[in-house]
Amino acid sequence: MNHYFCTELGFEGKIPPTFTNLRTLETWIKILDATHLNIYQTLKSNLKYDGICWVVIPKGYHNKPNHPLVNHDIIGILKAKFNEVYCIQEGETTWWSSKSVQTQVWIYNQFAQSDRIYTQNSYDQKYLKGLFPNKQIFIIRSIMDPEILSTLNNLPTQTERAIIAGPLTNEYLGFNSNLLFQMCDIPVDIPPMGESRMPKDSINMAEPIGAKYLPYRMWKEWMEHLPQYRYGMFMVSAIGAATFPLNCGYFGIPCIGDNRADTQKLLFPDLSVDYLDYENALKKLKKLKTDNIFYKDISQKSKEMYHEHFSKDIFIKLLNL
C-alpha cells in the first residue's frame, strides 16, 4: 500500500536520503517511505491517489476567518481522494481545547470522520478512546532514523553539565527543572525552540538564574552536541512527541522525566515520575549524582531499551497496518 502524508510542510515528494533535519514528522515520512503532499494543494487538486493518507490537522490558523482551511471538511475531501485517511493527533493531545468551542467542534468532527486515529503516547490513547469509543486508535511512536544516526561523528566528551527539555516557558517548565539542578550544583544548558518563537523574557532571564541558552541547531547537529551532557530532565507540561528522552536514551544519558510520555517510561522506568512530582524528581537526581553504580545501571539499561522498543520493526508493528 502506498503511503502519503498531507501536512503544512511546503515540499512535495519523498524525504531525500541526505536530509538531516529529521524531526518527528519528517522521520515518520521517511521510515514509511511515504510521499509528502502539501495539504493546501491537495485539497484544491482534482487528483486521486491509490493509498493511505496520513493527515496532521494544521495548527495556528484558528480565529482567522479568511484562512483557506477554516470550516472546511478536510477529512471528507481527502477521503474522496484516497483509499483511507488516518488522522494523527500530533503534539499535545488537548491543544485544541484551548480554542473556541466552535473550533473544538470542527476539529472533533475531522477526527471523527477519519478511518483511524493515531496518537503518540498510551496516555493520550486512553484520552482519545473515551472521546471516540467507536474509533480505532493506535500509537504512532517517536522514532529516529538509523541511517542518519550512523553518520553522527565528532561526538564530544561527557562533562558534568545538564541539559533540560526546553526553554523557560509554560510548555517546558524550564525554570522548575533549572531549580532542581541548581540545588544539586549542576550547571544547566537550555535548548531553544528558535529565539523568534520565545518570549524575550525567557531569553533575558536565563543568565540571572544560572542557566545558559544554546544556539538553535538542526536535528543532526543537536544529536552531535548532546553526548557531552551527564544528566537530562523532561519535566514538562506538554509531553507531545517526547523526543528529548528518546535522544538521551540513545546515548545513555540518564533523563528524569514525566511518565506520561512513552519514550520516558520505556527508556527510563527508574527515573520516571508523575506529572509535577518534583519531590521524587529531586530525590532521583541526587541519587544519580552520588551513586555511580545507579548512574551506570540507568545509562546501560536505557541504551538496551532503545534497541528493544524504538527500532523500525517495532514502529511498523505498532501501526497495525
Task: Describe this structure as you would to a colleague.
With 321 residues, this protein is of the alpha/beta class. The chain folds into 2 domains: 3-140, Rossmann fold (3-Layer(aba) Sandwich); 147-309, Rossmann fold. It has 14 helices and 12 strands. The chain is globular, with a radius of gyration of 20 Å. The termini are close together.
Topology:
Layout: E1 3-7, H1 24-31, E2 35-38, H2 39-44, E3 52-56, H3 74-79, E4 84-88, H4 101-113, E5 116-119, H5 122-131, E6 137-139, H6 146-149, E7 162-164, H7 174-183, E8 188-190, H8 200-204, E9 211-213, H9 219-225, E10 231-234, H10 243-251, E11 255-258, H11 262-267, E12 272-273, H12 278-290, H13 292-309, H14 312-319
Parallel strand pairs: 1-2, 1-3, 3-4, 4-5, 5-6, 7-8, 7-10, 8-9, 10-11, 11-12
Helix pairs in contact: 10-13
Which structural class do you get from the secondary structure elements? alpha/beta
In angstroms, what separates the terminal alpha carbons? 9 Å
Rg measurement, Å: 20 Å
Beta-strand share of residues: 5-15%
Unreliable runs: none
Mean pLDDT: 91
